[in-house]
DNA sequence: CTTGCACCTAAAGCGGCTTCAGGTTTTATC
DNA sequence: GATAAAACCTGAAGCCGCTTTAGGTGCAAG
């Protein structure tokens, strides 16, 4: 009964498809050490099994949650040690939650300003345009102190 | 009456400080063509006047609003032609507003999932940890379809 | 005249991949 | 068994929007 062997060992394309990412991304994760070096077949091509698929799914899922690669690295390290206390995983998630909430707050303020700008554009000439005007003159913003200052808006 | 000449022509440090950005950023904007090549003094140092300060302030302001550099380039081009119709400025701002709203929506869904995860972590061992568990198993998400799929969460 | 800051250029680094260039291996069809 | 297409391989460069680094030159104050 070896009819389903092809299902338990597979190439990088199948792995990537099952995890919902690109082939190059899998190689990248191997290179930066999120995935262990893959075993190879006679022709030097990577072979995977379901254990690696599980790990890759974890990685992609954590990335979808917006965790940084370094955070994912720590979370993976913890997932590899089920007997350890999970305080640190908790701390990472809480910190990330705080960051996400801060981003939402900044983007919401931004959305309000953009809405105001767009709503007030009468569709005439550039020199009457509210959009260009507001960008030229910070005084015209509701939150004149700045929308995020030096930092990137994310 | 030349006592305030120093106020109308100034160096890159003063320009950067007045616009609220870094000196290197000013040179970068010149390099990518958002700012015109600066005039130089005898010692090859850049000299600026209030016109450039206005342009730089516009750029920083638009960037603070989250407009991409390419969008800023277009907006600057329009600001340089006050007699033209402002339809395109309007379109750029509307598109940006849509993007910001989409980001907020995705981040909000993310925030909800993270809150759930964090709330359910009992603070025990890793193998009982809700955070690690959810990351291991996509099924446990409310929005099992994905938090943004392939795209970066911003 | 020396100290120390502001300025100069060119190039590399950041995150997190993606894309490209140029090759080898596997698979499907004839 | 030949051939063509698809999948795989590696290493390097590109993306965005700056920031940082390295190694210099200009300039003003004491």
Question: What attributes does this structure have?
Answer:
homodimer, two-stranded antiparallel ribbon, 154 residues, disordered N terminus, mainly alpha, DNA-binding, elongated, 7 helices
What CATH calls the topology of the largest domain in chain A is Multidrug-efflux Transporter Regulator, Chain: A, Domain 2
* Helix/strand/pairing category of chain A: mainly alpha
CATH class of the largest domain in chain A: Mainly Alpha
What's the N-to-C terminus distance of chain A?
A: 53 Å
Instruction: Calculate Rg of chain A over CA atoms.
Output: 24 Å
Distinct helical segment count of chain A? 7
Instruction: Write out the strand line-up for the largest beta sheet of chain A, numbering strands in chain order.
Output: 1-2
Strand content range of chain A: under 5%
**Number of E-type strands of chain A:** 2
* Major sheet of chain A: 2 strands, antiparallel
Number of domains of chain A: 2
* Helical content band of chain A: 55-70%
What oligomeric state best describes the polypeptide chains here? homodimer
Fold and architecture overview:
2 copies of one chain form a homodimer. Chain A is mostly helical and 154 residues long. Chain A has 2 domains: 8-79, Multidrug-efflux Transporter Regulator, Chain: A, Domain 2 (Orthogonal Bundle); 87-140. Helix content of chain A is 57%, strand content 3%. Chain A is built from 7 helices and 2 strands; from the N terminus they run H-H-H-E-E-H-H-H-H. The first copy, chain A, has helices at 5-8, 12-19, 23-31, 50-64, 69-79, 87-120, 130-136; strands spanning 39-40, 46-47. A two-stranded antiparallel sheet of chain A has the order 1-2. In chain A, a hairpin with a 5-residue loop joins strand 1 and strand 2 (46-47). In chain A, helix 4 packs across helix 5 (69-79). The longest helix of chain A is centred in the last third of the chain and has 34 residues, at 87-120. The first copy, chain A, starts with a helix and ends in an 18-residue tail after the last helix. The interface between A and B is large, with 61 and 61 residues. Chain A binds a DNA duplex (30 and 30 nucleotides) through helix 3.
